[in-house]
Write a structure and sequence with these properties.
about 120 residues
Length: about 120
Amino acid sequence: MALASSLQKTASKLMEKFGGALTYRRVVSDLYNTETGSMTQSTTDYALRGVLQDVKAREVNELIQAGDKRLYIAATDLAVTPSTADRVIIAAVSHQIINVQTIEQDNQSITYELVLRA
């Protein structure tokens, strides 16, 4: 457990030092409006920092497209577990989350790796 805790702290410090500012937007469809016949979505925003890079050409496949981005965020910096239903806003551009991978140590989340598409 001590190793996982140390890795979490290190990941958070690295994101703070080298990462860029972004907004993680949690999207929840929770209310059904009987008058309009539609679902109402509620959102919660989390300001944090992450490291953004382009996906490599060799990573392009059926799921990942050229032009997609890869975002790394520290798990302790985000109060929720990322989901493909959520959005990430970087420099006023909203990105869809295509894929989420969790990097773990001793069953504790260290970082999240998100594939984003604008």
